[in-house]
Amino acid sequence: MVPITVYLIVAAVLFGIGTLGVLISRNIIIMFMSIELMLNAANLALIAFSRALNVADGHAFVFLVLTVAAAEAAVGLAMVITLYRNRETINIDRFNLMKW
Amino acid sequence: MSEYSQYLFLVPLFPLIGFLLNGLLLGRLPRPLISFIGCASVGLSLVMSALLFFDLKGMPPEARLIEQTLFSWIPAGSLHVNIGYLLDPLSAVMILVVSGVAFLIHIYSVGYMHHDPGYGRYFSYLNLFTFAMLTLVLADNFVFMFVGWEGVGLCSYLLIGFWFERKSASDAGKKAFIVNRIGDFGFLIGMFIIFWQVGSLEFRTVMEIAPTVFFAGGALITTVCILLFVGAIGKSAQIPLYVWLPDAMEGPTPVSALIHAATMVTAGVYMIARTNVLYLMAPDALLVVAIVGAVTAIYSATIGLAQNDIKRVLAYSTVSQLGYMFLACGVAAFSAGIFHLMTHAYFKALLFLGSGAVIHAMSSEQDIRKMGGLRKYLPVTYWTFLLATLAISGIPGFSGFFSKDEILWKSFSSQFGHPIFWVIGFITAGLTAFYMFRLVYLTFHGQERMDEHTKAHLHEAPKSMTVPLVVLAVLAVIGGWVGIPHVLGFTNHFERWMEPVMSQGARSAESHALAAAGGHAGAEIGLMVASVALVLIAIFLARMFYNKRPELATDFREKLSGIHRVLLNKYYVDEIYGAILVRPVVYLSLFLWKIVDVVFIDGLINGLATAYSDVSQYFRGVQTGRVRSYATLFVIGVVVLVAYVVLR
Asked: Which residues of B touch A (CB under 8 A)?
């Protein structure tokens, strides 16, 4: 049986890649996908714990997270489309009006 | 209780309704309707007053009192103030005079204000004034009286500044209001002390309890009386607060007649007569009243000698006559003071209305040096004006003679009197006759000094103006016949009538005078003859100077040019007040504005705001508006927190 540590390491690596993607990328779509990556890293960790501790709570959480992620994707993509229509770009650095 | 007593509240109510109708529908009504509402409301008041007067007259003298409490106004702890009316012989005389003169002046105004764009506003103010004045004289307690007191002050302000687009008029209005405020302050403090000591502010209660609470002749009662008198000084334009009255002539002439001659300015005299019980307990205060009255009388009469504005001469004459009334009050001859108040209301209102007719005819010219010979153009005005002049000068048979002579005699014979008071009053009588006849001769006699254009427009006033003149002229002649002194073989009905209002002390002072008169009938007759002789000489001199040989007047003026200049400039009192009172206040205000307000208060507020914005200069750079930098900071924050939790 694969030890839980391995799962957690994979989850941490996935999470780190997602975080870096959000921080580094200028493209909103890529940022968006990076966030999905982070969410799924969290899902992996939840499932691993759930199995190791032999309780079902983690599974339930994962379903919730998946639902939220789906809703978020719908709303987020709609916003991206609207932004693109207005500015002809999806470079996040161009959307910096909300400042002093 | 009598037939009409439950309708007492209607007397002040009618003008209030008139004010509301004209005031709320300002300018929407056609002019004839405005005039009708304005005059009819006061006319109904007059009818009501007359009915109540005869009601009161039908009662036995000691029972002449009608009280009506409408409702409780201020019930606060031990302070309890009612909206209540009190009709006794004193207020009965006052409401008759006020509503009567006001009615005539309302009618006169219909003609005088005919072309004015502010016609509706004018009549609503005039009605409001009548309401306030009737409230003042009918109130049964100090607080309600103070409401009327302030109400007439407000209307006076509004009407002096009626032509507010003229700066001098709005300035004069402000001056009147501010100077009156000084007096009101004294009145209020006096009222507070009375409440503190007596625990009530109802006239009847105060007058009953006061002798048991205050120590007669003590410092406290003297203070109270002097404070009340300060209020009277302000309202009735006595030295040192008289300066507002001559400037008040900026208002329309009927207003000067009603407010600044016949009614409002006599409120102080009425108030002192109303509180005569208190004054008789404070002989020192009485002395102050008498001195202020006497000095004011002679002082303003001398100013009247040299003025050239027809209304200003009359204004100083009013101040002088008010001085007479206070002199009477000061020698405890309260009913004589009220008697003179009444006759003065008739003849002075007539003089002002007559001057209004002259100004009307002269296309708004007020300088008597540019008049002359108006007799043949304005016959009705001339004859009525002449009758009023004879009355104010004190020619025997006319109303002013009886009232003025009674004051002169009382100031000589009363136990509070002194021959010096008589001498001052005597000289003032001569001066009065002189400046009044100077006015008559310069205005109505001699050469016609107006320009051709004005002359072409000369015309007698319309009926609505001449009829009130004639009615007032009749009153000015016969008004004094109710109070012919005992020594001439008549009963002094007026004094009898006022008797129930006067306290025991006043009555004893009166009877003292009466006894003295009995003993010195010869003296009274002698003084009377002396004053009449002086008046006749003064009239003769005025005729010499201003009619027969005008070059004499010019000569005289040149010889005494120093004195003339001082009189012409009213003793420079306005300038002195300006220098020692007004200017320091202006400078203090400038200091408070420019330094305290602008530098300190504004500086504090603005400084606080500037400080915040300066500090935020350094921090606002954090808010870049770039999503990725926010995310970076967020991640760093999370890492730090997690590290803290894990490594702790």
From this structure: 620-621, 623-628, 631-632, 635
Residue B190, CA atoms < 13 Å, CB-side half-sphere: 28
Q: Residue B620: which of A26, A95, A100 has the nearest Cβ?
A: A100
Which H or E run contains B67? strand B66-76
Among A20, A26, A100, which would you mutate to test the B interface (most chain B Cβ atoms within 10 Å of its Cβ)?
A100
State both tokens at B349. Answer: 């209102």
Q: Which residues of B touch A92 (CB under 8 A)?
A: 626-628
Whether A99 and B628 lie within 8 Å, measured CB to CB:
no
Using a CB-CB cut-off of 8 Å, the residues of chain B touching A99 are 623-626
Cα B441 versus chain centre, distance: 28
pLDDT-above-70 percentage for chain B: 96
Report field, pTM of the whole predicted structure over 0.90: no
Q: Where are the alpha helices (DSSP H) in B362-492?
A: 379-393, 399-413, 419-444, 452-457, 463-478
Report the chain B residue with the minimal C-alpha distance to residue A15.
B635
3-class SS at B326?
Answer: helix
Q: Is B204 exposed, middle or buried (0-12, 13-18, 19+ CB in 10 A)?
A: middle
Q: Kindly state the greatest CA–CA separation across chain A.
A: 56
Q: What tens digit of pLDDT does each residue of B546-601 get?
A: 888 878 778 887 888 888 888 888 888 888 988 888 899 999 999 999 999 999 99
Chain B CB within 8 Å of residue A22 CB: yes
3 state SS of B446: coil
Q: pLDDT (tens digit, 9 = 90+) per residue, B501-536? A: 876 666 666 565 555 555 567 788 888 899 999 999
Task: Please give the Cα distance from B298 to B288 (Å, whole number).
Answer: 16
B473 in Cβ contact with B342 (< 8 Å): no
Cα separation of A29 and A26, whole Å? 9
CA B473 distance to own-chain centroid: 22
Q: Is B23 helix (H, G, I), strand (E, B) or coil?
A: helix
Six-digit token pair at B419?
């021959």
3-state secondary structure of B75: strand
What is the dihedral angle through the alpha carbons of B258, B99, B396, B238, rounded to the nearest 10 degrees? -40
CA angle B201, B145, B54 (to 5 degrees): 105
Residues 6+ apart with CB under 8 A from B611: none
Residue B169 identity: A
Q: Which residue reads 């503190």 in tokens? A: B196
